[in-house]
Amino acid sequence: MTSPAARIFRLAGRLGLLAVGVGVLAVVAVQFAGIVEKNVALASEVAASRSQIDTLRAREVKQLRTIRRLSNPAGAIPEIHDKLRVVGPHEELIYLRGAPPPPAGRDESP
User: Which of 21, 23, 69, 95 has CB 3.0 to 4.6 Å from 75, enough for a Cys bridge?
Assistant: First the structure.
């Protein structure tokens, strides 16, 4: 048989070891939860970045189309005339987009 002091030391040692084990598990759980939270936040940022990239790529395609159209004189002149509402000789404006025509009898050309 063992003495009561040895039992108390053995019990105290086991409780201390249990406390250390629980402490280590708690630290690991807290760190794991922090990593998961950080991963979720980064995944959200990546999704938002991808959405912005897609939007910017679509905008770039549209701008490149406009640049190509305006680089061609045949495409630029009607666009410029339409925006300025300038009518050259033997030309007239035809409103297809539903914009109201300017009042009759008023010349808007410079």
Answer: 69
